[in-house]
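Render this sequence as a predicted structure.
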Amino acid sequence: MDYVLWMVTAGAGAWLLLWRRLGDRWGWLGMVNAWAEWGIALLQGLGIVGLLRRRWAQSAAAFGLLAVGATYRARLPFFSLLRPFPTQSRDGTAKIPGGDSTFTLFNANLLKKSRSASAHIGLIRQHQPDVVCFQELTPTLAEELVAALSDEYPHRAWRPRPDSYGLGVLSRFPLEEMGYWETPGVEPWGHRVRCTLAGGQEVEIYNVHLAPPTAKSTLRKGMTWGFRAREEQVRVLQAEMERRELPACVVGDHNFADSNDAYRVACERLEDAWTEVGHGRRWTWPSRGFPSNYVPWTPRLLRLDYCFHNGKMTARAMEILTERTGSDHCPLLVTLAVS
C-alpha cells in the first residue's frame, strides 16, 4: 500500500506540473485535463483513506495527494457552491430586478437526434426569457419551435441545418443578424445578433457551438487540432467584441471544461457570468435523463455550456436548469444588465 500510494502521489504531482506548465499542448493531455476534477476527487479520497490508516509513510503520501488537490482547486471557480440561491417566486423562477437595460437569456443545445423540442418549449414558457439561443437546431426542430413560440417571440435569426451545426435565436425584442462564422474550424460554429432592448439600448449576442471533440473533422484532424481550434475561436470572439465596442455576451455550447486552456483564454478578456452570480453545481453535461428519458438519474460531470460577457454588462443571476429535455446538455438561464 505504501508504494502504491507514493506512486499515485508522484503521478498526480507530475500531472499537476504538466497542467500548470503545458496546459492542453497535446490533445491527449487536454482530454485528461478536462476530466481532472473527478480524478482529483478520487485521489483526495484515497489521500483521506491514507491518513486514516495512521502510518507515517502513507500519511506523508496522503498529504501530498491532498496538496495536489488543493493546488488544482484553487484555480477553478468552485466557490459558487457557497452562494445562496436567489429569492424564489411561487413558480420557481428567480426574482431579479428588471429595467429597460436588463434582459433574460435562455440557452439550450437541443441535440440533433431529438425528435421534439416540446420539453424546451415548456421551459421557455415557464421562465419567460427575453432572448432564446439554440445550438444543434435541425429543420424539424426549428419548424416546431417557430410554430409554438412565434407569437411570443416574433423576431428570429435562424440558421437550421440537418447536421449538428444549426444555430438559432428567438427574441421578444427587434433582432438583426450581424455575423456568421465557419472558420477557424470546419463546420459553422457561431453567429452574432444585435438586439435592441426595451429602452433602446443595443446589445450583441454571440450564439456559439465551438468545435466538438467528437466531430468528424476533429477526429480526422486530431484532438490536438480540436483544442487549438476552440482556443482560436474564442480569440476571434474576443477580437470581434473589442472591435465593435458594444455591450456583448457569448452564450452556448463551448465544448471545453473550465480546466482547459480555452477557458483560461476566454477569461483573459471576458467575464464568466457563473463565477459572478452562479449557484449550486455548475456542471451541464451530460444532462439528467441522457441518453434516455427512461434512465432515472445521470450524473452531470463537466461544464461545457457558458455565458461570458465583455464587462459592459453585469450578470444579475444565472442558473442551470436540470429538468428532463431529451438533450445531453442542461439549459442555461441568465439575467444580464447593461452596465
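Summary. The chain has a mean pLDDT of 85. The CA atoms of residues 1 and 58 lie 8 Å apart.
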